[in-house]
Every structure is written in structure tokens, then in C-alpha cells.
Amino acid sequence: MKRLTCQEVLDQLADYLDEDARAELVQEVDVHLHECVHCRVEVDTLRRTIRIYRCDERVELPASLTEKLQNALDQAYKATRRDPGTLDV
User: Fold this and answer.
1) Which residues in 51-63 are b (16+ Cβ under 10 Å) and which e?
2) Residues near 31 by Cβ (< 8 Å), separated by ≥ 6?
């Protein structure tokens, strides 16, 4: 079995995380992940991100956070309208 480098693992993450990934690729990546904590963190983070995006549940933000976010977006929008090269966020 071929030993993958970190770059090869990162290049193949989409295929690896696909439910229909070929068994050989999954095995090669799993061996690498067992030995490489950096790639393991990358894969775990990506898996969590995918789970969040697949979630159909709507998340309600607290009113104070919603207001802060809206103000920041308004400021950023106004800044880009004045000078597209700067943001005042």
C-alpha cells in the first residue's frame, strides 16, 4: 500500500469524504491520518463543517449578536461603497 504525503491527503479530501469513495483511497488516507495529527485535525474540521452545512435546523442568534452583526455588515457595505479597497470593520 502506498504511503500518502500530507499534500496528497489534502488534495484528495473531497474524494475521501465522499460516501462512495473507493476503499483503497479510504484505507490509504486512514493510515496517514493515524500517523499525522495535523491532517487528522484538517479532516475532522472539514467533517464538522460539512455536518453543519447539511443541518436543516435553523439557528437563531441572540438579539444582541444579531444587532452587532447587522451593524458590522452595514459598516462594511458603506465602506466598500465609498472606497472598494478598504473596510471599517
Assistant:
1) eeeeeeeeeeeee
2) 1, 3, 4
| Cα distance between residue 14 and residue 61, in whole Å | 30
Ranges 14-18, 20-24, 38-42, 54-58, most confident: 38-42
Query: Kind and range of the H or E element at 32?
Result: helix 23-35
Rounded Cα distance between 29 and 13, Å, is 9
CA atoms within 13 A on the CB side of 43: 24
Spell out the domain ranges in the chain: 1-83
Contact yes or no for 21/45 (Cβ under 8 A)? no
Instruction: Extract the C-alpha cell encoding 28.
Output: 490509504
| For residues 65-85, average pLDDT | 85
Q: How many angstroms separate the CA atoms of 61 and 68, rounded?
A: 11
Q: What is the pTM of this model?
A: 0.54
